[in-house]
Design goal:
The protein is of the alpha+beta class. It has a single domain (about 5-135), classed as Alpha-Beta Complex (endopeptidase fold (from Nostoc punctiforme)). Helices cover about 30% and strands about 25% of the residues. It has 5 helices and 6 strands, in the order H-H-H-E-E-E-E-E-H-H-E. It has a 6-stranded antiparallel beta sheet with strand order 1-6-2-3-4-5. A hairpin with a 2-residue loop joins strand 2 and strand 3 (about 90-100). The chain is globular, with a radius of gyration of 14 Å. About 25% of the residues are buried.
Amino acid sequence: MKDLLIAAQNYVGIPWKESFGDTLEGMDCYSFARYFLAQECGIVLPRYRYVVKGCLSVHKEIMSKIAEVVSPVSIDLKRPSDIVLMRYENLDCHIAVYLGHDKIIHCDEPESAILNFSDMLHLVKVAHRIQGFYRCK
């Protein structure tokens, strides 16, 4: 597999836009992860229909579609292209892609960015949100 950290440099700075779809003009976190994995890894995540921001049924739909194509992975066994799922107020609501080299890429307001995963584990406001790692089946 190619070095995803190098490839990810081409995706930094894509604006976050609410359910904007698969365009470099802007994407939500799921659309961004879906686009990145398809372009760089050949991994296809299912599409979802967007209804209303924060709508519980939409989040459940997204998570049920993801559950069809991924399996949980221990944090000790994570590898590049694994999905990182995060929670907010007991709702699985944010998705990122593990790049290897202790880095993730995600799209959040205002734009996509590469973050140090270990730094996130030490931030009280973020560490408890990490739901786990998942790998495409």
